[in-house]
Amino acid sequence: MHILNSEYLRILLFSLGVIYASLGNAAAPVDCKKSINIRATQASPLNFGDLLVSGAGSAVIGTDSSRYTNGLVIPANGLVSAAELVVTGCKEQPYAISVQPSTTLYSATGSMIVDGFITNPILGLLDLKGKQSLFIGGTLHISAAQVAGTYSGSFLVEVIYQ
Fold it and tell me: Which of 6, 33, 45, 109 could be a cystine partner for 15, CB 3.0 to 4.6 Å?
């Protein structure tokens, strides 16, 4: 983010990446080789794009990469996306998804909270090739005195065989 000499702040390309996807084998299906763990790799980060801020508010990214804002936050340009993980493991096997409740994002001069994580699907089911895309959205909370800058952080996602 860059501080602007006006009453607005511009939040530039905030990217929240999933840096850890839990491995499972806890309840690996019987027909699956024991060496095949369930894995999730990041295909794209959760990205709120650019925001103009003149006071407190929030920005929400849906699992379909839609964005809306509340309060004194105005959507601007920039790439906007839900996080996408590609989950791989044993074909046609169900798995549970767990996302930590909240995380803190940091810049050189400030911080913000992201919470309200949502996933699509809510419960996973790997296809005939043992893959499925998992999309994650969330809510970014912006304070009235938010300092402009580039904010980043990470959050934990666990995928475990059912």
Answer: 45
92 half-sphere exposure, CB direction, 13 A CA radius: 3
- Per-domain boundaries in the chain: 9-161
pLDDT at position 13: 47
The rounded Cα 154 to chain-centroid distance in angstroms is: 8
Q: If DSSP states are collapsed to H, E and C, what string results for the chain? A: CECCCCCCEEEEEEEEEEEEEECECCCCCCCCCCCCCEEEEEEECEEEEEEEEEEEEEEEECCCCCEEEEEEEEECCCCCECEEEEEECCCCCEEEEEECCEEEEECCCCEEEEEEEEEECCCEECCCCCEEEEEEEEEEEECCCCCCECCEEEEEEEEEEC
Nearest to 11 by CA among 155, 144, 142: 142
Does residue 29 contact residue 90 with C-beta atoms inside 8 Å? yes
Residues in Cβ contact with 24 at an 8 Å cutoff, skipping those fewer than 6 apart:
37, 38, 89, 95, 158, 159, 160, 161
Kindly report the average pLDDT of the chain as a whole number. 82
Which residues, listed in sequence order, are joined to residue 27 by a DSSP beta bridge?
none
Whether the pLDDT of residue 30 is over 70: the answer is: no
